[in-house]
Known about the structure:
Elements: E1 3-7, E2 11-13, E3 18-25, E4 34-39, E5 46-51, E6 57-59, E7 67-72, E8 77-82, E9 91-97, E10 107-112
Parallel strand pairs: 2-10
Antiparallel strand pairs: 1-3, 3-8, 4-5, 4-9, 5-6, 7-8, 9-10
Amino acid sequence: QVQVVESGGDLVQVGGSLRLSCTASGMRVSRNHMAWYRQAPGKQRELVGSVTDYGETSYADSVKGRFTISRDNGKNMVYLQMNSLKPEDTAVYYCHVWNSAYWGQGTQVTVSS
């Protein structure tokens, strides 16, 4: 059975950095299209970015140039490196196996000014 778990959320100041981690037991992240989503209070869940099984990454315009998705196939982990954080980045961040029912429980990122 597939289980997706995120970690690394925290309270950080404006301009700071944070790295989120995602592990997916029961499957290989290297063989799947993996995505990061986020949901801010009162807003719909939105796609932050993704990495395909062949390693191609894409990002939402709002995070392009600040966020980077990477993958460690040996550790079966996917990462979201977030730099130059802004208050509008505050949200619960979710890891998702693309086009599947598998989601993590989410990890809270709060950017304080």
